[in-house]
Structures are given as structure tokens and as C-alpha cells.
């Protein structure tokens, strides 16, 4: 039950964010980091690669709602902890940030905690993962 809810939430958030980042990377960077990038083509390619990765995570999560294995849960935990730490470091490093920066930190941290709890529960009972 809890894994299904989490996988559905992750799928929706990652797919929606991935689509927006793929289509309008400058707007996402402005909302998240508080910067309006110039037209650096390399930056936009990197943003779009990240968007495709987010779409892949979202699709994998959506397709694994009924049976999310520990491998997927561990990969999502790594992703969410990494993103939360990276964005937190950016925020406290004096860079300011955009309107969506702190909500993104909190969302990724909460999802990471939820994933950690699911993985901890799965260690004792693999059927729960």
C-alpha cells in the first residue's frame, strides 16, 4: 500500500517535472535556482538530459507501482538524497535560489525518508518492497 502510493507520487512528480524541464529548461532553472541562463546550448542540452532521466525514473516508478523491488527503491533513494543535498548546498551556499528551491529540497528529503523506511522494512520482509 505505502510503496504503491509512493511509486505513484514519484511517477507523477518526475514525469511532470521532466516534461516541463524538457520543454522550457530556462523557466525551470529560474524557478529552482533563481537564475535566468543565457542561451548557452550546452546548458540546455544538460538540462534536457536530466529531463529525460527524470522521465525514465517516473516511468520506472509508475510501472513498478504494484511490485517495486529493492533495486528501484535503492536507486530512487540515491537520486532523492543526492538531489536534496545538492539543492540544499546550493541554497545555503549563498546563491539565493528561486521560488521552487526550498519546496524541492523538502519534497526530495521527504521522499528519501519514505524510501528509506520502505527499504528498512523490506530488509526484514522482502515481500514488503
Nutshell version of this structure?
By secondary structure, the protein is mainly α. Helices cover 81% and strands 0% of the residues.
Number of strands: 0
How much beta, percentage-wise? under 5%
- Give the termini separation: 10 Å
- Helical amount: over 70%
The H-and-E topology, N to C, reads as HHHHH
Gyration radius (Cα, Å) is: 16 Å
Principal-axes geometry comes out as: globular
Structural class: mainly alpha
Number of helices: 5
Give the low-confidence spans: none
Task: Explain what this protein looks like in three dimensions.
The protein is mostly helical and 129 residues long. The chain has one domain. Helices cover 81% and strands 0% of the residues.
Keywords, separated by commas or semicolons:
single chain, 129 residues, mainly alpha, 81% helix
List the helices and strands and how they pair.
Layout: H1 2-23, H2 25-33, H3 41-63, H4 70-95, H5 101-124
Helix pairs in contact: 1-2, 1-3, 1-5, 4-5
Amino acid at each position: 500500500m505505502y510503496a504503491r502510493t509512493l511509486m505513484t507520487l514519484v511517477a507523477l512528480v518526475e514525469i511532470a517535472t521532466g516534461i516541463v524541464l524538457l520543454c522550457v529548461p530556462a523557466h525551470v532553472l529560474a524557478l529552482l535556482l533563481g537564475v535566468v541562463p543565457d542561451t548557452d546550448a550546452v546548458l540546455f542540452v544538460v538540462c534536457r538530459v536530466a529531463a529525460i532521466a527524470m522521465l525514465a525514473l517516473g516511468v520506472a516508478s509508475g510501472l513498478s507501482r504494484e511490485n517495486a523491488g529493492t533495486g528501484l527503491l535503492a536507486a530512487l533513494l540515491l537520486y532523492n538524497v543526492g538531489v536534496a543535498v545538492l539543492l540544499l548546498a546550493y541554497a545555503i551556499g549563498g546563491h539565493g535560489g528561486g521560488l521552487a528551491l526550498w519546496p524541492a529540497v523538502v519534497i526530495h528529503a521527504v521522499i528519501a525518508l519514505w524510501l528509506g523506511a520502505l527499504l528498512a522494512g523490506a530488509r526484514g520482509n522482502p515481500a514488503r518492497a
